[in-house]
Specification:
This protein has 277 residues and is α/β, with parallel strands linked by helices. The chain has eight helices and 13 strands. α4 links the parallel β5 and β6.
Amino acid sequence: EICKNLNLTPCVSIRVNNVKTTKKELEEIFNKNSIQYEEGELDDFLILNKAKNIENIEGFKEGLFTVQDESAGLTCLVLNPKEGQMVLDACSAPGGKTTYMAEIMKNTGNIIAWDVYEHRINLINENANRLGLKNINTSINDASIYNENYKEKFDKILLDVPCLGIGVIRRKPDIKWKRKQGDVKEISRIQSKILNICSKYLKTNGELVYSTCSILKEENQKVIEDFLKKNTNFEIQKISLKKESFFNKYLQNEKILQVYQNQETDGFFICKLRKKQ
C-alpha cells in the first residue's frame, strides 16, 4: 500500500492565511475564477483540483494562501503555539511550518527560525514577506551545535529534523536512487544530536514537537526512545485530534502519530514532548 502511494501524483493542498483572509473569502475568489477545490482534512486547508501554475492564481502573490501538505501542517497544530509566546523552529527552511505557526499565533510573539544555509534563510524571509508575517526572526544557525545563549529560553520548540524523506518520495522521486541502507544510521545520529541539544533550550513545562517526513522507526520512535532514556525530565504528551479526524487511524496509543503516505497526504511522524523540570 505504501509503495503504491509512493507512485501516485500528489494532490495540491493549500493553507489559508487567516492573518490576511478567511477560508470563505478565498473560496469566493476561487469560485469567481473557476478554480476547482474541495475541503481539506484540516480546517485551514483546501485541496485544489487540476491546479497548475499556482503562483499565477489570484490570491497567491497577495499572500492569501500558501502550498503545504496537510501532514506538515498537522505538525504545527500538534505543537499549538500560543499568542505572545517565544518559539524556536530549529530546522525551519523553506518556512512552511514556520509561517503556519506565525499565523496560528496571529502575528504576535516571536518565532526564531534557523537554517544552516543563507539561501534557505532567504526562502523563509520571502515566504514570510508574501504572507505579511512580522513575528519571524531568521538567522543562520546550526541546531546540532549547543549555544548557551538559548538555554531555557523558549515556550515551544519545533524540531522538524533532517531526514531521509521516505514519506515524500512521490514529491521527490530521486530519493529512490539516492538513499542507501547506511544512510539510516548517519541521519538518526544527527537527529538524536539535534533533539538532545535543542531540548536544553526549552523552559520548564515547555513543549517540543519532534517530526520527520519519514516512516522509518530508526528515524522516529527509536530516536524518541533513546532520548527519553537519557532525559528523564521529559515525557511524551498525548496528541488530541478531533474525533472525526482522518488522521486518527495513524495515532498510536494517543502518543505517536505515524502517518503513512496515502492518497491524501504525505508520510509523516509527529511526537510531542513536555519538559517536566
